[in-house]
Amino acid sequence: MKKYLLLPLMLAISACVPASHPGVVTRAAMEPASTSSLPAMKRFTVHQSLPAPRSNNDLSLDFIELSFRMESGKELPVFTRFEGPVTVRVIGAPPPTLGPDLTALLNRLRQEARIDISPTSGPNANITVEAVSRRTISKVLPQAACFVAPNVSSLDEYKKVRRTAQTNWSLLKTRSRVSIFIPNDASPQEVRDCLHEELAQALGPLNDLYRLPDSVFNDDNVHTVLTGFDMMILRAYYDPALRSGMTRGQVANALPGILARINPGGTSTKARFLTRTPRAWNAAVQGALGPGRSSGQRQDAAYSAIKIAQSLGWQDHRRAFAHYAMGRALQSGDAEAAHEQYKMSDLFYARTPGTDLHRAYVATQLGAYSVSKGQGAEALSLIAPHINTARRRENAALLSTLLLLRAEALELENRAAEAQAVRLDSLGWARYGFGSDWAVRAKMREIASLNPLK
CA 317 to CA 210: how far, in whole Å? Predict the structure, then answer.
């Protein structure tokens, strides 16, 4: 689904890169999981549905652009979806966490998006989720962690027809069979994220828009659990007023009535009319944070992204993201300059509604800097507002990182007993977020090394 993982955890870079086939919807790879001797894994058991306040004018524009274009920029001639009840089956060798996470996701899709979707064990399922090894996926698409393809029911079938019209999304008139291929040896969170992102695109839009701050349909990959906005888009997607084969104009004409029903508050909400994101800015950001570039090249690309944002007068999350990219580009060579860029990033995120999760990511950078300077009280102040955000957004990797930083800050303040309790709490979340024993311990060592007392 995503081309790049552009807002990763502090120093835990897991870059997403373009798939080898431009029509394939993918998500990028992470390290494999292994058995662990650490405390028991913690899980998010209750989803806190968060509203997505939006003008219906904005929603309509977003819906059309998401639904009639692919990530590559290719236009889609007609609207497509599943018609009738949707069934989902799992094949392959799924990890233990896949079943509960899929059940929770299907429940949300039924309740929030009002989609008639249910699990099945039958061979004629509309959507097949096949769990295979990362190595197996990489043999098909070397730089993808998971992906979705139409008109196939297994990875073996996909390999036979991958370059034919059968798997061309732009030729679809309706959806009847779609397969999602996910890794069974990645961290539990990575598997769950793949389920959310790829099932959302199997059911609905195939495009991503940088202008959406609170959506999985965004190449920055900040949100990987379906948001309130995403559920609203999917609910509109399966409204009875729409059907497969409708043209862009027909869908646009139907949207005002649909949105008035499902988002009545949006009728009187003032539209923001965020501008489209030019492809030059996309390329600059990808150059700053994508793989295979030198530090100087990354800085040049980030500078271009900032200049484009300034020239367009952006004051939103895209301007913030450009500064974040510059911070990442500078970090290995000039920590002080990088810190200033992270502060600029947080300043612009603070001006944009729906960016609480973005700010939590930036807080890992700001908090790490304060810990490295021995400023425990400041680090605690920076981290505290974002721990509940990570919990609400069900991001265990981010939550555990923030908690580990908090533990180091507490030690700097001579609060060793509290630090130990917080560190222990973080490990259960790290088991879900990072998966393997070595990955969890590596994250612990990485953050502990920031503490000047150590």
Answer: 9
Q: What is the mean pLDDT of residues 82-86?
A: 97
List pLDDT tens digits, range 424-447.
Answer: 999 999 999 999 899 999 999 999
Closest-CA residue to 288 (of 331, 255, 242, 229): 331
Say if CB 211 and CB 352 are below 8 A apart: no
Closest CA to 218 of 441, 40, 1, 452: 1
Separation between Cα atoms, residue 336 and residue 342, nearest integer Å: 10
Q: Distance of alpha carbon 53 from its chain centroid, rounded?
A: 20
Q: How far apart are CA 187 and CA 122, in angstroms?
A: 28
Gap between the Cα atoms of 400 and 432, Å rounded: 9
Question: CB within 8 A of 328, min separation 6: which ones?
Answer: 288, 289, 298, 302, 338
CB-based burial of residue 450 (10 Å sphere; 0-12 exposed, 13-18 middle, 19+ buried)?
Answer: buried
What is the identity of the amino acid at 177? R
Q: Are 347 and 311 in contact (CB under 8 A)?
A: no
User: Is the Cβ–Cβ distance between 354 and 327 less than 8 Å?
Assistant: no
Residue 204 near residue 374, CB atoms below 8 Å: no
